[in-house]
Description:
Blueprint: H1 2-13, H2 22-38, H3 45-48, H4 53-77, H5 81-95, H6 98-101
Helix pairs in contact: 1-4, 2-4
Amino acid sequence: EAIQSELEAFAEERDWNQFHSPKNLAMALSVEVSELLEHFQWLTQEQSTQLDAKTLESVATEIADIQIDLLRLADKLGIDIESAIDLKMQDNERKDPADRVRGSAAKYTEYD
């Protein structure tokens, strides 16, 4: 909530709320995720776990941009992120019980 308030004040000071509709924030989120993906494009699995300092700093910046857009979107829609995560984790536990899925990357719809 503190970060959301800070982000709201930042946008308000710049008169950016007029641009921060849920649609625009969702679109901006997609752009930021794409920018994050660019850092991993063409890397092997192993290379993706061993980023150099400059790339890691850029990745951290993109993750921050993504988080900012997510927080703004949740704020604009009145979504309590913590509650949404709690509900989603309960749903994940139901769909993907550890004793049934351990070590498998299969989607829950593919289980026996």
